[in-house]
Specification:
About 30% of the residues lie in helices and about 5% in strands. It is mainly alpha-helical and about 130 residues long. The N and C termini lie far apart (about 70 Å).
Length: about 130
């Protein structure tokens, strides 16, 4: 009887604690949305963390796909590749940064307004379809 209680207690704890552990990653569980975004530029990561109010958990595609407007003026951002995950972005201000490659923006089909003043750009052909 005691052995059965221990097993039942273990199963109960497992059922209660497992969802808590799994949710601690900060990502939901659908295949395409649980991809963790890799930030090479810590300044961009910090700005996105502030925007989504996520100071420490992993940042997943599902965490950023609701963002429609983003202002990143003067953050000294050099790598914007994680912005390719912001599929609903309509307005983006990247003025006064250190960006030299804007090709990650090429698939943001909802993007209507883009500011790129004072960056290190030499080629903007990646966004010629806008």
């Amino acid at each position: 009887m005691i052995n059965m209680r221990k097993k039942l207690l273990f199963i109960l704890l497992f059922v209660i604690l497992m969802p808590i552990y799994l949710s601690s990653t900060g990502c939901n569980f659908s295949e395409s949305q649980n991809k963790i975004i890799d930030f090479k530029c810590k300044n961009l990561e910090s700005a996105i963390r502030d925007k989504i109010d996520n100071p420490s958990n992993n940042i997943c595609v599902s965490d950023v796909e609701h963002i429609t407007e983003l202002s990143l003026i003067g953050y000294e951002i050099s790598d914007i590749s994680p912005l390719s995950n912001l599929s609903n972005l309509t307005e983006l201000n990247l003025n006064w940064n250190e960006i030299s490659d804007i090709s990650p923006l090429s698939n943001l089909t909802n993007l209507k307004i883009l500011y790129l003043e004072n960056n290190e750009l030499e080629d903007i052909s990646a966004i010629s379809q806008f």
